[in-house]
Amino acid sequence: MEIKTICHLFFDIVDNYPEHVLFKYKKDGVYVGLKSKDVKEKVRDIANGLISLGVQPDSKVAIISHNRVEWVLADLAIVTSGGVTASIYPTLLGHQAAYIINDSDSEIIFVENMLQFEKIDGVWKDCPKLKYIVVMDNTKVDKENVMTFDELIQKGKEYAEKHPDEYKNRWESRKPEDLLTLIYTSGTTGDPKGVMLTHSNLVSNVKDSTTHVLKKRALDRNLVALSFLPLSHSLERMAGYYLMLYNKATIAFAESIDTVAQNMLEVRPTCMVSVPRLYEKIYAKILDTALSSGGLKKKIFLWATRVGSEVVKLRVQGKMPSGMLAFKYGLAKKLVFSKLKEKTGGRMQFFISGGAPLGKEIAEFFLAADLIILEGYGLTETSPVISVNTFEKIKPGTVGTPIPNVQVKIAEDGEILCKGPNVMKGYYKKPEDTKEAIDPDGWFHTGDIGLIDDDGFLVITDRKKEIIVTSGGKNVAPQPIENALKASKYITQAVLIGDKRKYISALIVPDFEVLEKWAKQNGIEYSSHEDLIEKQVVKDLIAKEIEKVNHDLARYEQIKKFALLPHELTQEGGELTPTLKVKRRIVNEKYKEIIDGLYAE
């Protein structure tokens, strides 16, 4: 069948590959597989259950859960029953979830467990359209209109006996232009907006990304993906889920973000989608281990990275090493880089990175280690992929070239504009916001500043709204400088400050695991993180790291002062979005006293 909707995409794999293991999940301490034929049956029963509860074509059904097999079963059931999935980040508070439930007009919500149930139950009275709650982990709740996942499945079986053709009629009647999902923006400024994405938006992005990245690549086509980024976010939803289904992959679900390293060894994935934070942490740990080991090990590591750098230069030109360099690189892989690959399970063919800029130094290191990170770019409003690096055309420090059927141009003020079948239908119930985002010619205004280099690669320099303008009128893009700072093994997070100020300063969160080890080696006694960052030797250490970054910056971009924070910025603390982007306004408010101190005369 021609794949025009996500319904077609789903039935193409479950009907043609019934014995294929589609999903893997942890049960009783081990990973178990779920075959296509079993997934088809479960999805059909859940969908019929939803229809029995009153779901009509275009009815909205919400999901609030971390990644788990039930998330995708629920989503596929909603979609094939003719409904629209409204995804809610599981880290949101009750009143934030209530806002999305009400704004999306959701009538039913799937909740992960009792923690999420109590969150929604506590705001149910404020959600007049919400009729039913379904508990995914099958915990029984003695309350009207609350049921377990299995109870919904049973309702579906009973409904199908009386209405055997209803389900097939529903999914076959869905059209490419029909609404598939509402994905809410992170809300870094104001209330979140519901991005309306159609079947056509996601299907085009799946097909065009596949053509762009995988078509020419002689990969082991038995792809196994480890899923841990939130499925409620567009990146994982498309690249880690729908795209994997389309390419007949097996999707294994990590137990949590904290168990990713262990789950990689258990699942042995061949590909994985992540945001830069994971790569930054891996890089920092490798760097610390290698450089603190000293002696011969350190010398071999530094030699291997030099060899790797030479290979990266060739790969960027589309070439591979030969002669003596090929011999050295083979040795470097055997002595150093193979150990890194083993930590990913030993079968990793590529990573996908998105959501925020990846530091060039980190991308180059992974490429040198033959762990390819295909960095891309896009937004929820663009389904999400606009451009991405490929195996044949890769350039660290860029976000690749545009995917087929997607046009990109740079506006006079440097803003990146995008046009194509991936661009959203609009913001739900917000026509004015839609008009502001998509101009009369169909160009979507991304809000990002960038350029297209001489080789046709797109380079993101910063968010339009995040450009720092100093009191001297100088424009400073914070993200590249923050990424350069985070390349230091001693720094885990950095936020540049300086808008309407005389000079640039920074809030720095040290990597305390590395810093504590350094303090121990240098005989520095301390009682807490707060005590440690007050030590002058620690401040001097971080100052040296900042000076290395300042060396490559224009004078007006250089960091004149900095303050160390005793703990990481987190979602729970309100400083990060669910996709781990910094909420600069919140950071400025929360650390106002510290920031003001950096500018005190």
Question: What would you note in describing this structure?
Answer:
- This protein is an alpha/beta fold.
- It has three domains: 6-259, Rossmann fold (3-Layer(aba) Sandwich); 282-463, Rossmann fold (3-Layer(aba) Sandwich), CATH 3.40.50.12780; 467-598, ANL, C-terminal domain (GMP Synthetase, Chain A, domain 3).
- The strands form five sheets. The protein has a nine-stranded mixed β-sheet with strand order 2-1-11-10-12-13-14-15-16, sandwiched between helices.
- A hairpin with a 6-residue loop joins β24 (491-497) and β25 (504-510).
- The longest helix has 22 residues, at 295-316.
Q: What's the helix and strand layout?
A:
Layout: H1 6-16, E1 21-27, E2 30-35, H2 36-52, E3 60-64, H3 69-80, E4 84-88, H4 94-104, E5 106-111, H5 114-121, E6 132-135, E7 146-148, H6 149-162, H7 166-172, E8 179-184, E9 194-198, H8 199-213, E10 224-227, H9 234-246, E11 250-253, H10 260-267, E12 271-274, H11 276-293, H12 295-316, H13 323-342, E13 350-353, H14 360-368, E14 373-378, E15 385-388, E16 401-402, E17 407-410, E18 415-419, E19 426-427, H15 431-437, E20 444-452, E21 458-463, E22 468-469, E23 475-476, H16 478-486, E24 491-497, E25 504-510, H17 512-521, H18 529-533, H19 536-550, E26 559-564, H20 584-590, H21 592-598
Parallel strand pairs: 1-11, 3-4, 3-5, 4-8, 5-6, 6-7, 10-11, 10-12, 12-13, 13-14, 25-26
Antiparallel strand pairs: 1-2, 8-9, 9-19, 14-15, 15-16, 17-18, 18-20, 20-21, 22-23, 24-25
Short description:
41% of the residues lie in helices and 21% in strands.
